Amino acid sequence: MVNLLLVMLGAAIGAPLRYLTDQLVRARFDPGFPWGTFIVNTAGSVVLGLLTGALLGTGAAHPLRLLVGVGFCGALTTYSTFSYETLRLAEERSYGYAVTNAVASVAAALGAAFAGVALGQAIWS
Questions:
Q1: Residues 62 and 6: beta-carbon distance below 8 Å
Q2: Threshold 0.85, pTM exceeds
């Protein structure tokens, strides 16, 4: 039960932060490209990488992993919205944006996760 509450608490913070970040980014950047989703997915990947690097070798049910990794990062990041926005761009014949979104999002998220793990290990190991 405590594990579920940790996940719920993290999600209660991550989901509104995703929404607010998307609204803030939409007001400031090119509306043709899904910058909000790109930013939250990249940020969530680096946070999850940092957490993973910091907790490497600990138990899978570590409270921080549940609170931050599963709850917060799970609610902050969104693969379904990334997929939908990429398909929407292609349907609108914005092929350059669609390809850029797909390639750049995956590359940025993976790069952020790897960098986060390395930094987390360097700081906390």
A1: no
A2: yes
